């Protein structure tokens, strides 16, 4: 009888196929994942991949040619704008599908669909912040403009035309690893992507919850000392001495503000889980022809964001017979966001303004169906949120909406032990707006007037739009729709029982801080406060002062500037804060109390050239020492509440040390004796020396070894193999070259406004999101070396140029 | 001679099936069994032929893809699956997965023929 072995071997075969067809925990189904036909091998793109071809598509009206250069930058030549944005959508999907899908799902609070139950609280917070509500409001505004809507429609159709033809084998590798499928694109997703940017740039720039706790422990004069509005050393965006017109809007402080608001000592336990990095800053500057060698302006921009693979940016040229824009786009949205055309160049930095406030809501009862407002019970609008979870049942959350906005924190949601207070969030990103329209118009702008018109409707996140034109104009506007606040409004959680604490109006657009063609011949912004104390409105925010000081001082002294000089300024490692602080620390430290090893570190600090260069040991010693000093001074004070009050900014501490070395806060309130600054500094140095010794033992004393600059894949630690770690770069958040561990210049661009436009750009990544492509990370080494790619600004007669590597043609089917 | 023929046929069949878009990833399994039933050998030789044939098919295909890719992706995947970043190990692992299935499928095919002939 051979029937038994037959049955056995058949059973084994079928069982083996079945086992290999199934995921094992986090491991994808081994059979299909290793299959050369379907699995990851299919993502291993041939080095000699041909990106050209010919496609017949329903969504396009006329022929569109995409010319790829040797860096895989597509130069899209279309006959009309709908075709242009259709093809941009197609290309974003072709090269960045997983990225745009993941980011918009996360923006909508749907990360659990991909990541499983560990993302539930993240998703709840996104929903409770009103991310989808905000995107829906934006979409209404966008779709009300029937012409503009066609661009969004075309973009969506372009993304979907790629998704529709996608085979299982061609799925991006992340889908194969996570065992999920891409989702169809929609205009709402484009709106969500822009709200993701709003959150990134305008949701972490307030500190209302922590400030409320600070208010509970500090006296008003202490609050002013710890959290001053205008730093002494500020070199603002609008040059000092500029006269501001009388404010058209004068907000009125509620009569009961002192008792109910300023003197309210109640603390809050709620805190945001996913707080955007307040260091999401940027630099931009522009020099007029009077300061350049050529006589034409030069514009520079480097937005500092989380560095990721694929990069947040996608380089592209978008050309129709009527306009020709080049720069970086945000995958998930049409248009060039930062770039130039043949008449103008523009760039952005974050305004860092506070446009998000919290209001305390009194619900009638546990059902949260009504809240007390202007003397009566007003019904809330309930929004039921279903959070779908991978491999599990859905979780439901109901969010109450009030006149202020959604109630982000209440008894049903808080990350802390309990939420005894119901906090509604009022956020500028909730208001109907169409930010894409600004970029659309900038892509086509011909002069200063076009630029000013283009940016005038931009609402949120507030940005510093810098500008240069071929005709020699330079300008900067801090643009956004900013609430006109009475002094102190919105620094802390506000009473939410009547309309008196609502935003009373907005700063008129024309009164936003701006400057045009200043005599000094340059303009700059680096996330500092936009204007000095003479600006007639109260404008709190999370400002960063040091970089602006350095850039301003450099630009002031430079002349006969060339693009190369601008590259050197991008790469500047000079530590302005250390320049101020080091002499004080060295003068205060009690050297006699140091051991031999500690003295050796002190010598390194003393002999340091003040540059945070990659091999600098002085920067490492300084940063460890300085961070410890700051912690020793403040921690005891600010941790008197839980959660902690905000850390005073580095700038505040610097200025405090410069002004007064016997300050009340130096004493550690947790010890019986009275500490002096000198004692604190000495003890901090000893503490820091322990860290330094441990690092030195691992050969990590050099700054770049210490900081480990890295660019992670979007899925972070889940896919460490797709990250690029240990880059040989220096810098820091307070330094012009603002590289931190995995954060920093996400795109460096320099545009020289000569005839034909001379432009350079680089981002630490590549055009392709596929880790199996040579275009996944090909620009990282360029970026790492501080070098640039020359942007090839193609014209009509360049179609046959040898720089064209592949041509992808779209035709109507 | 028969052994080599069956290795060759399994390999070619394995490659052909992988290039056919409609085939599931395990499409070579019934094919390997069928080949073993047609080109009849002892069970040990049938297993070995199925094993070797698919080792060459999947190993060869992944090697070819990897060569064209300059091992860019395999070096990274060989870190996700802890193989110390070795592309060769990843290719070998791919080959062995195909080979194991090819082997047991061929064995089943071989026994199918034997059980039939016995019954006759």
Radius of gyration of chain B using CA atoms only: 16 Å
For the record, give the distance between the C-alpha atoms at the N and C termini of chain B, rounded to a whole number: 27 Å
Structural class of chain B: mainly alpha
Shape of chain A: globular
| SS strand fraction of chain A | 15-25%
CATH architectural type of the domain at 576-707 in chain A = Orthogonal Bundle
What would you say this structure looks like, in words?
The complex is a heterodimer of chains A (813) and B (120). Chain A has 813 residues and is an alpha+beta fold. Chain A has a domain at 576-707: Penicillin amidase (Acylase) alpha subunit, N-terminal domain, CATH 1.10.1400. Helix content of chain A is 33%, strand content 17%. Chain A is built from 23 helices and 28 strands. In chain A, strands 1-28-2-3-7-8-9-10-18-19-21 form an 11-stranded mixed sheet, covered by helices on one side. In chain A, strands 4, 5, 22, 24, 25, 26 and 27 form a 7-stranded antiparallel sheet that branches. In chain A, helix 3 crosses helix 9 (187-202) and helix 18 (596-607) crosses helix 19. Chain B is an all-alpha fold. Chain B has one domain (2-119). Chain B contains 5 helices and no strands. In chain B, helix 1 runs antiparallel to helix 2, helix 2 (28-38) crosses helix 5 (87-119) and helix 4 (72-80) crosses helix 5. Chain B is elongated. The mean pLDDT of chain B is 91. The A-B interface holds A 1-3, 5-6, 9-10, 12-13, 16-17, 20-21, 30-32, 34-48, 167, 173, 177, 719-722, 771-774, 776 and B 17-19, 21, 23, 25-26, 29, 33, 43, 58, 61-62, 65-66, 68-70, 72-74, 76-77, 79-80, 93-94, 97, 100-101, 104-105, 107-108, 111-112, 114-115, 118.
């Amino acid at each position: 009888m051979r029937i038994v072995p037959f049955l056995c071997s058949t059973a084994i075969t079928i069982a083996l196929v079945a086992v290999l067809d199934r995921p094992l925990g986090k491991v994808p189904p081994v059979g299909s994942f290793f299959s050369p036909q379907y699995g990851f091998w299919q993502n291993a793109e041939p080095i000699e991949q041909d990106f050209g071809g010919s496609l017949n598509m329903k969504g396009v009206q006329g022929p569109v040619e995409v010319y790829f250069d040797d860096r895989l930058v597509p130069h899209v030549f279309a006959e009309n704008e709908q075709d242009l944005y259709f093809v941009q959508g197609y290309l974003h999907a072709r090269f960045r599908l997983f990225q745009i899908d993941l980011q918009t799902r996360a923006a909508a609070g749907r990360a659990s669909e991909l990541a499983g139950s560990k993302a539930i609280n993240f998703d709840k917070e996104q929903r409770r912040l009103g991310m989808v509500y905000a995107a829906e409001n934006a979409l209404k505004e966008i779709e009300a403009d029937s012409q503009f809507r066609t661009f969004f429609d075309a973009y969506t159709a372009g993304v979907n035309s790629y998704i529709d033809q996608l085979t299982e084998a061609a799925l991006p590798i992340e889908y194969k690893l996570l065992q999920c499928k891409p989702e169809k694109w929609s205009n709402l997703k484009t709106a969500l992507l822009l709200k993701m940017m709003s959150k990134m740039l305008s949701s972490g720039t307030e500190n209302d919850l922590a400030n409320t706790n600070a208010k509970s422990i500090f006296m008003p004069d202490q609050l002013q000392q710890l959290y001053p509005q205008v730093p002494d050393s500020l070199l603002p965006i609008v040059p000092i001495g500029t006269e501001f017109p009388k404010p058209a809007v004068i907000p009125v402080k509620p009569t009961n503000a002192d008792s109910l608001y300023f003197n309210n000592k109640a603390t809050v336990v709620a805190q945001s889980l996913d707080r955007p990095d307040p260091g999401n800053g940027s630099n931009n500057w522009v020099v007029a022809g009077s300061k350049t060698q050529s006589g034409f302006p030069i514009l520079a921009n480097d937005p500092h964001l989380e560095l990721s693979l694929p990069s947040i940016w996608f380089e592209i040229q978008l050309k129709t017979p009527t306009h020709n824009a080049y720069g970086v786009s945000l995958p998930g949205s049409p248009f060039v966001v930062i770039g130039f055309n043949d008449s103008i160049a523009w760039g952005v930095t974050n305004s860092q303004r506070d446009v998000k406030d919290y209001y305390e809501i009194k619900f009638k009862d546990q059902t949260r169906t009504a809240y007390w407002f202007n003397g009566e019970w007003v019904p809330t609008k309930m929004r039921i949120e279903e959070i779908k979870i991978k491999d599990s049942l859905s979780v439901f959350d109901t969010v109450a909406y009030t006149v202020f906005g959604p109630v982000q924190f209440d008894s049903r949601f808080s990350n802390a032990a309990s939420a005894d207070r119901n906090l509604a969030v009022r956020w500028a990103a909730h208001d109907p707006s169409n930010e894409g329209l600004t970029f659309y118009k900038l892509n086509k702008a011909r002069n200063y007037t076009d630029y000013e018109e283009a940016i005038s409707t931009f609402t949120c996140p507030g940005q510093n739009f810098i500008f240069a034109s071929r005709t020699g104009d330079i300008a900067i506007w801090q643009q956004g729709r900013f609430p006109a606040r009475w002094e102190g409004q919105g620094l802390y959680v506000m009473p939410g029982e009547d309309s008196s604490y609502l935003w009373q109006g907005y700063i008129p657009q024309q009164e936003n801080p701006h400057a045009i063609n200043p005599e000094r011949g340059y303009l700059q912004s680096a996330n500092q406060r936009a204007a000095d104390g003479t600006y007639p409105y109260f404008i709190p925010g999370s400002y960063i002062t040091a970089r602006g000081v350095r850039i301003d001082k450099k630009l002031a002294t430079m002349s006969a500037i060339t693009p190369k000089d601008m590259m050197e300024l991008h790469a500047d490692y000079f530590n302005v804060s250390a320049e101020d602080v080091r002499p004080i620390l060295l003068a205060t430290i009690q050297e006699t109390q140091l051991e031999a090893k500690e003295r050796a570190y002190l010598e390194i600090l003393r002999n340091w050239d003040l540059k945070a260069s990659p091999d600098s040991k002085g920067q490492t010693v300084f940063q460890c020492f300085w961070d410890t000093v700051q912690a020793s001074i403040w921690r005891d004070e600010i941790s008197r509440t839980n959660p902690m009050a905000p850390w005073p900014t580095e700038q505040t501490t610097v200025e405090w040390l410069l002004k007064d070395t016997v300050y009340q806060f130096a004493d550690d309130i947790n010890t019986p004796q009275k500490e002096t600054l000198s004692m604190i500094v000495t003890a901090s140095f000893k503490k820091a020396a322990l860290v330094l010794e441990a690092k030195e033992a691992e050969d990590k004393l050099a700054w770049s070894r210490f900081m480990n600059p890295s660019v992670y894949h979007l899925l972070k630690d889940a896919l460490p193999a797709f990250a690029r770690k240990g880059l040989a770069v220096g810098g820091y958040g307070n330094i012009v070259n603002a590289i931190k561990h995995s954060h920093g210049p996400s795109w460096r661009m320099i545009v020289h406004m000569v005839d034909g436009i001379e432009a350079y750009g680089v981002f630490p990544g590549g055009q392709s999101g596929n880790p199996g492509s040579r275009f996944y990370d090909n620009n990282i080494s360029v970026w790492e070396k501080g070098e640039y790619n020359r942007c090839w600004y193609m014209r009509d007669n360049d179609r046959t140029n040898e720089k064209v590597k592949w041509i992808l043609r779209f035709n109507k089917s | 001679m028969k052994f080599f023929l069956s290795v060759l046929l399994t390999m070619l069949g394995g490659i052909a099936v992988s290039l056919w878009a409609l085939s599931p990833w395990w499409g070579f399994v019934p094919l390997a069994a069928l080949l073993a039933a047609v080109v009849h050998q002892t069970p040990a030789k049938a297993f070995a032929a199925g094993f070797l044939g698919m080792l060459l098919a999947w190993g060869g295909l992944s090697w070819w893809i990897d060569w064209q890719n300059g091992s860019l992706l395999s070096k990274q995947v060989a870190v996700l699956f802890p193989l110390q970043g070795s592309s060769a190990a990843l290719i070998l692992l791919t080959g062995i997965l195909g080979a194991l299935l090819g082997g047991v499928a061929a064995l089943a095919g071989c026994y199918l023929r034997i059980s039939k002939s016995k019954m006759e």
